[in-house]
Structure formats: C-alpha cells, structure tokens
UniProtKB/TrEMBL annotation:
<keyword id="KW-0175">Coiled coil</keyword>
<comment type="function">
    <text>Required for proper homologous chromosome pairing and efficient cross-over and intragenic recombination during meiosis.</text>
</comment>
<protein>
    <recommendedName>
        <fullName>Meiotic nuclear division protein 1 homolog</fullName>
    </recommendedName>
</protein>
<dbReference type="GO" id="GO:0007131">
    <property type="term" value="P:reciprocal meiotic recombination"/>
</dbReference>
<dbReference type="GO" id="GO:0003690">
    <property type="term" value="F:double-stranded DNA binding"/>
</dbReference>
<dbReference type="InterPro" id="IPR005647">
    <property type="entry name" value="Mnd1"/>
</dbReference>
<dbReference type="GO" id="GO:0005634">
    <property type="term" value="C:nucleus"/>
</dbReference>
<dbReference type="InterPro" id="IPR040453">
    <property type="entry name" value="Mnd1_HTH"/>
</dbReference>
<feature type="domain" description="Mnd1 HTH">
    <location>
        <begin position="17"/>
        <end position="76"/>
    </location>
</feature>
<dbReference type="Pfam" id="PF03962">
    <property type="entry name" value="Mnd1"/>
</dbReference>
<dbReference type="Pfam" id="PF18517">
    <property type="entry name" value="LZ3wCH"/>
</dbReference>
<feature type="domain" description="Leucine zipper with capping helix">
    <location>
        <begin position="177"/>
        <end position="211"/>
    </location>
</feature>
<dbReference type="InterPro" id="IPR040661">
    <property type="entry name" value="LZ3wCH"/>
</dbReference>
<comment type="similarity">
    <text>Belongs to the MND1 family.</text>
</comment>
<keyword id="KW-0539">Nucleus</keyword>
Length: 211
C-alpha cells in the first residue's frame, strides 16, 4: 500500500500562493484562485481563502473591490518594496534597542559607582565617630583617679580653712563627675551603649556618684 502524501504546511501554502501571483502577474477573484491554486500549486481549494487572507494581512498581496468583484493581485516589485520597508523597520527597531541597551548599561555603571561612593562615605563617617568617642573618653580614667585624691588633699589642710577646702573639694569633685556623666550620657545617646558596658570599657567605678 502506497504511503499517504503529506499535506503542505501553512508556510508552504503561503509560498505557493505567492508564486502563483508573481508568476501570473494577473488579477484574480477568489473563485478563480480556488480553481487555479489546486491545479498549479497543489494548494487545496478549502484552504485558499484562509491562506490568501493571511498574505493580505501581512501586506504581501493587494486586494480591492472593482465594481461588483473583489480582486486580488501581487507583483514582485511590490514584494520588494514591502521587504525594503520591513528591513528599514527592523533596522530602526534594532538601533532603538541598541540605544536602550547603552542607556541601561550607563545607568547600571552609574548606580554601581554611587554604591561604592556611599559605602566609602559610611566608612569615613564611622571612622570619624570612632575618633570622636576616643577624644571624649580618653581622659575618663584620669578623671576617675583624681576624684578620690581630693579627699586626702583636703585632710592635710589646717582647721581654719577646713570648711573652705571642703567646699572647694565638693565643687571640684562635682565638676569631674559632671564631665564623666556628660560623656556617658553622650555615648549612650549617640551610640546606644549600655551604662555597664561604658563603665567596664573606660574603667569607671560602678559606685561613682555625687557625695
């Protein structure tokens, strides 16, 4: 038994119908195409209308009503113009996409550069904050050491000046304590450090307070 012949695909039918138009260079009605196409190009009559409409939708053939008849035709020169137009459109589209790609690439490069700059600025800011902490807290141990020594200094004074020296001692001690507590408050506010951590890190006695 002979194998059944495989039918034409849609693209093959389109190509065959275009050949029919180009080779004949004539004008046809649909009924004429349905009769001629099966004989000359092997396109079955049932699909001629569908294939012709697809060619018309793509601008590959022309269609116009002449009197009471709807006529179809296509010439190679028209096809060349259509191909040229499509080629121009594709080139324009390609150029547009290429320009968009370049703009996108520039935007990504700029974003990456800005990200590096932001990171560098944050590092500089963090270093400045660290230096500021060291500047403020560098004298804390010496201030703490000076506060207890004031008591011994006052004990060596003579009795007539005892009250005056006691006041001076209290004022000086309070001044030292004010400085220490101000530094602790600033560190807690700026850097969110716990008080016990500050005391331990900068050797501040836990029981240090106003007399």
């Amino acid at each position: 038994m002979a194998a059944r012949k495989k039918g034409l695909s849609l693209e093959e039918k389109r190509a065959k119908m275009l050949e029919l138009f180009y080779e004949s260079q004539d004008i046809f009605q649909m009924k004429e195409l349905e009769k001629i196409a099966p004989k000359k190009k092997g396109v079955i009559s049932q699909s001629v209308k569908e294939v012709t409409q697809s060619l018309l939708d793509d601008g590959l053939i022309e269609c116009e009503k002449i009197g009471p008849f709807v006529c179809y035709w296509a010439f190679p020169s028209k096809a060349m113009q259509t191909d040229s137009k499509r080629r121009s459109e594709l080139l324009a589209l390609y150029s547009n996409l290429e320009a968009q790609e370049k703009d996108l690439s520039k935007g990504l490069d700029k974003y990456a550069q800005c990200s590096h700059e932001v990171i560098a600025q944050r590092k500089v800011r963090a270093e400045r904050n660290r230096e500021e902490i060291n500047r403020w807290t560098g004298n804390v141990p010496s201030l703490c050491a000076c506060a207890p020594s004031l008591s011994g200094l006052c004990a060596r004074r003579s009795r007539p000046f005892e009250e005056l020296e006691r006041r001076i001692k209290r004022k000086s001690t309070f001044s030292f304590l004010d400085n220490i507590l101000s530094i602790k408050k600033w560190c807690k506010s700026e850097f969110g450090m716990e008080e016990n951590v500050l005391d331990q890190q900068f050797e501040i006695p836990a029981d240090l307070d106003y007399i």
